[in-house]
């Protein structure tokens, strides 16, 4: 599920860049999530509970709809009008760091350990290498827009976990997409963007369909399922893999081959990903030294917790 999500969302950066050549940004994002939200809402209504039942669940819809759908994607699309999709994906790679900071402030059980921090540093180093800040001129306005969007995404992920909503993932996604699309369309009207009559025809058609059904419907169903299983810090580490899949997609579709510098950055990102996600990676490599088991406890969920002494 994790690798599939990386491919779905990495490919979305290529599709966004392709579609923005002929469609205004906020209309593009708003129409995408209006259609995706309608599909997901239909699935949710047909397969289980759809309507939020209390204040906490409505708050969850508001957090995801405004911060994750409207805030993040609106700023991402606006930023990608002046920088490439590949550069946008690199900036989005910072979301694990921002999510870790937000989770540390709001969720006591999500505080990162030393190895997690080392993994995040490796990932940041890879992001810097991939971005190659000294190699080309990247408009700071585009970088700033995408960065603020990523901060909203991270805040929304942690806020949703803190609310502990019991609303099914499909229902939450459907409501949030519909709410977010209304905010995005409202922004498009305020910016006086022209309505894209031909969004489903011509060169924008294929990217639009992919963004609605692939990255939108399938991608977010996968994301919320992972969020419920592993928490916001670990699930947002998917952003470390998105520059890899985005670069490979740009190579396959746009003919933009990755450079040696990019490949080196990918290796650093991979190292950071392993350190931040694999449990006790140093011990598994035989680096942790000898240890003696001093006690074992049975945790509340039935798993055995082993405690060691060096």
UniProtKB/TrEMBL annotation:
InterPro entries: AA-Vitamin_Transporters, EamA_dom, EmrE-like
Pfam family, one: EamA
Topology relative to the membrane: Multi-pass membrane protein
Keywords: Membrane, Transmembrane, Transmembrane helix
Gene Ontology CC annotation, any one: membrane
Subcellular location: Membrane
Transmembrane parts of this sequence: 25-46, 58-79, 85-107, 114-131, 143-163, 170-190, 205-223, 235-254, 260-278
Residues of the EamA domain: 3-130, 141-276
Top-rank taxon: Archaea
Protein name per the record: Drug/metabolite transporter (DMT)-like permease
């Amino acid at each position: 599920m994790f690798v599939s999500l990386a491919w779905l969302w990495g490919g979305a950066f290529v599709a966004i860049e392709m579609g923005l050549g002929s469609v205004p940004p906020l209309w593009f994002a708003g129409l995408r999530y209006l259609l995706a939200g309608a599909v997901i809402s239909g699935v949710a209504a047909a397969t289980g509970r759809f309507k939020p039942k209390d204040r906490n669940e409505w708050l969850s819809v508001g957090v995801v709809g405004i911060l994750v759908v409207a805030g993040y994607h609106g700023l991402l699309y606006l930023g990608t009008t002046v920088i490439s999709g590949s550069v946008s994906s690199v900036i989005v790679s910072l979301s694990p760091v921002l999510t870790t900071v937000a989770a540390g402030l709001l969720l006591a059980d999500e505080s990162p350990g030393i190895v997690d921090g080392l993994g995040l540093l490796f990932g940041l180093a890879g992001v810097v290498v991939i971005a190659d800040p000294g190699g080309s001129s990247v408009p700071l306005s585009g970088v700033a827009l995408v960065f603020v969007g990523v901060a909203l995404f991270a805040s929304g992920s942690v806020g949703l976990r803190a609310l502990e909503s019991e609303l099914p993932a499909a229902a939450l996604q459907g409501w949030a997409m519909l709410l977010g699309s209304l905010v995005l369309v409202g922004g498009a009207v305020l910016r006086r963007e022209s309505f894209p009559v031909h969004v489903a025809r011509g060169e924008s058609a294929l990217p639009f369909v992919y963004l609605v059904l692939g990255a939108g419907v399938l991608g977010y169903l996968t994301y919320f399922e992972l969020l419920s299983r592993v928490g916001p810090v670990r699930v947002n580490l998917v952003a470390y893999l998105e520059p890899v899949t985005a670069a490979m997609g740009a190579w396959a579709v746009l003919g933009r081959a990755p450079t040696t510098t990019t490949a080196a950055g990918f290796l650093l990102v991979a190292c950071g990903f392993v350190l931040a996600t694999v449990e006790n990676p140093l011990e598994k490599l035989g680096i942790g030294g000898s240890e003696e088991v001093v006690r074992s406890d049975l945790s509340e969920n039935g798993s055995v917790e082993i405690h060691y002494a060096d």
